[in-house]
Write a structure and sequence with these properties.
Elements lengths: L6 E3 L15 H4 L7 E10 L3 H12 L5 E4 L6 H10 L4 E6 L33 H7 L2 H17 L4 E6 L8 H14 L14 E3 L4 H14 L7 E3 L11 H9 L4 E7 L8 H5 L3 H9 L3 H10 L2 E3 L1 H10 L2
Parallel strand pairs: 2-3, 2-8, 2-9, 3-4, 4-5, 7-8
Antiparallel strand pairs: 1-6
Helix pairs in contact: 5-6, 6-7, 8-11
């Protein structure tokens, strides 16, 4: 059972940046004026073999610059072993507070006895954000975030950044506050959008940007980078090859730091059994292992970076 995303993005719709507008975060990080800086992050590491292997191939194609792992999921050790021989891969956490499929479920890392409000009648994470919000406390959400960080560190993963599976941490302001709190304490960058120009980001909940806004400067002042924009539209592009859609999105990038949120799922015999259908994500895999994407990035003069690179730039800013 796949819940609707909290966020929906519309590619190719943009606003022009007036000359008198406030500096974007690329400016504040010291990139050249007008720079278009891009992170391509593949979510769902560890969720399945298909999502893990697909992301690895995107990394090795030189297109995927960062990934985020779902720590409650069974294929995370595969990726942790991959990191032993590829330690420079930028790896963050896809913080997982819901378990949305019927026959393939995962449990809170902290354990039901520690976070009972995060567990359903099967002892698994709730099916959707509504049930999560109705049953979990902010204290439990924070405890589970910390447990997922601890598991990653125990496995030797150097956490470069964090984001949120199903956007669960954005489902309640109190959950978002704990996400920000842990990020600042641990000095871990997070996926949050705060730039003056939003060429791609649109929220199903129009209050999304408003909810995020109070935290932006606190994160920056804590020494963490912030995104100007985010592109998550490819999740809903229903085609098995999204190369031309990504080409258009790259050509339509606006100045600032943008993250493409993608899911490189490589077709196999099992992923459809888990999700009931993943063909809409096979197109991410087809496109983001295609050398044409790198060619267009170079043609457009886009600066392709990882979250690790972004954090290093923030550390260089006084």
């Amino acid at each position: 059972m796949r819940p609707s995303l909290v966020l929906a993005a519309a590619a190719g719709v943009s606003l022009l940046l007036p000359s008198f507008a406030e500096p974007n975060f690329a400016d504040r990080l010291g990139y050249p004026p007008g720079a278009r800086v891009l992170i391509i992050n593949s979510d769902d590491i560890g969720m399945s073999y298909a999502s893990t292997q697909g992301s690895i191939e995107g990394i090795e194609a030189g297109i995927v610059t960062s990934v985020t792992a779902m720590m409650p999921c069974p294929w995370v050790p595969m990726f942790a072993n991959y990191l032993k021989t590829n330690p420079d891969v930028c790896t963050g956490l896809h913080l997982t507070l819901c378990s949305e499929w019927d026959d393939y479920r995962f449990m809170p890392v902290a354990g039901k006895s520690a976070v009972p409000g995060l567990a359903d009648e099967m002892g698994c994470l709730w099916d959707n954000n509504r049930l999560l919000g109705e049953n979990a406390t902010a204290d439990e959400v924070e405890m589970e975030i910390r447990a997922q960080i601890d598991r990653a560190e125990t496995m030797g993963i150097k956490i470069s950044h964090m984001d949120s599976h199903m956007w669960s941490v954005f489902s309640k302001p109190a959950f978002l506050e704990r996400y920000v709190k842990v990020a600042i304490e641990k000095k871990i960058p997070i996926r949050i959008v705060g730039g003056p120009v939003k060429g791609f980001t649109y929220a199903a909940d129009p209050k999304f940007v408003e909810i995020c806004a109070p935290h932006i400067e606190a994160l920056w002042e804590a020494g963490l980078p912030v995104l100007d924009d985010m592109h998550a539209a490819s999740y809903n592009w229903d085609t098995t090859d999204k190369t031309e859609q990504f080409v258009d999105a790259i050509r339509n990038l606006k100045p600032g730091v943008t993250e493409f949120v993608v899911h490189l799922t490589k077709p196999d015999d099992v992923i459809g059994k888990i999700t009931g259908g993943r063909t809409h994500l096979y197109g991410d895999y087809a496109a983001l292992t295609n050398p044409r994407i790198l060619e267009v990035i170079e043609e457009e003069g886009v600066i392709l970076i990882s979250w690790t690179d972004l954090m290093k730039k923030r550390q260089d800013v006084k």
